Amino acid sequence: MEQRPDWLAEGVDLDKPSAARCYDFYLGGAHNFAADRELGKKVLEVVPNVKEVALNNRAFLRRAVRYCLDQGVRQFLDIGSGIPTAGNVHEIVHAVDPQARVVYVDNEPVAVAHSRSILDGNDNATIVQADLLDVAGVLDAPETQRMLDFSQPIAVMMVALLHFVPESANPREVIRQYHDKLAPGSYLGFSHVTGEEFPEGVQGLVNLYENSTNPVTLRTRAEVAELVSDFELIEPGVVYVPEWHPDSPEDVGDRPEESIVYGLLGRKA
């Protein structure tokens, strides 16, 4: 039986793996438990490059945030932010403008607890414990309302998140609700796992996550584009994450499709 950390909220099931804690494991973090590591190791057997996949996705997030900063955006809402690791959104943002505002949102108690610890004393960044699907719970939270001005552009990040939302939850409508609350000139950074190029291995990942707290739904490029169709896509549109505004040609590599994740940035007109 794994010892329960003092900081962990009651009711968190250590015996059932969570996506946020598995992602932390892939990134080499320390905020995961035996069940998460067990699932992570099984995923490595079917998707041997899953750690590289996680790193590619994280690099996409950094580039999308930098792009929004370059457009003058100074407010960020990172939904499904996960467990804090180096290169968080607020670190990228505050290196450019220490007065810019960042709100993290996650429904995973471990992610929220660690985010609160890291952000303690930071007047320009906060964390909300809420679920993506509860749009009012995210946008009307006191922390969100205090930190963000919805009359001005906001960059919303939904990175490696929507593949944990089944069609039964109507993710298209959920994204539309966020879109409608944002000012013109706002952005949506978005990434999503796909099985189009490597169906067998990725389906193995889906099967492994089936009994976790976060089952996976795969979507095609066209389905991803449809999810975000209220936004105008920034070139090059929906592409594999290494192909989205790479820092150098070497970052793309010979087989960007091995990232198994589509990425995009959309803008509200």
- β-strand percent reads 5-15%
What does the largest sheet look like? Answer: 8 strands, mixed
Q: How much is the average pLDDT?
A: 92
Radius of gyration: 17 Å
Q: Please, how many helices? A: 11
Shape: globular
Number of strands: 8
Secondary-structure content class: alpha/beta
User: What string gives the helices and strands in order?
Assistant: HHHEHEHEHHEHEHHEEHE
**Fraction in helix:** 25-40%
**Uncertain residue ranges:** none
Brief write-up:
The chain is built from eleven helices and eight strands. The chain is an alpha/beta fold and 269 residues long. Helix 1 crosses helix 2.
Please outline the helices and strands.
Blueprint: H1 19-26, H2 34-46, H3 50-70, E1 75-79, H4 89-96, E2 101-106, H5 109-119, E3 125-129, H6 135-139, H7 142-147, E4 155-159, H8 171-181, E5 187-193, H9 199-209, H10 221-227, E6 232-233, E7 239-240, H11 249-252, E8 261-267
Helix pairs in contact: 1-2, 2-9, 3-4
Question: How would you describe what is shown here?
Answer:
The protein has 269 residues and is α/β, with parallel strands linked by helices. 39% of the residues lie in helices and 14% in strands. It contains 11 helices and 8 strands. It has helices at 19-26, 34-46, 50-70, 89-96, 109-119, 135-139, 142-147, 171-181, 199-209, 221-227, 249-252, and strands at 75-79, 101-106, 125-129, 155-159, 187-193, 232-233, 239-240, 261-267. Strands 1, 2, 3, 4, 5, 6, 7 and 8 form an 8-stranded mixed sheet that branches. β1, α4 and β2 form a beta-alpha-beta unit. The longest helix is centred in the first third of the chain and has 21 residues, at 50-70. The chain is globular, with a radius of gyration of 17 Å. The termini are far apart. The model has no long low-confidence stretch (mean pLDDT 92).
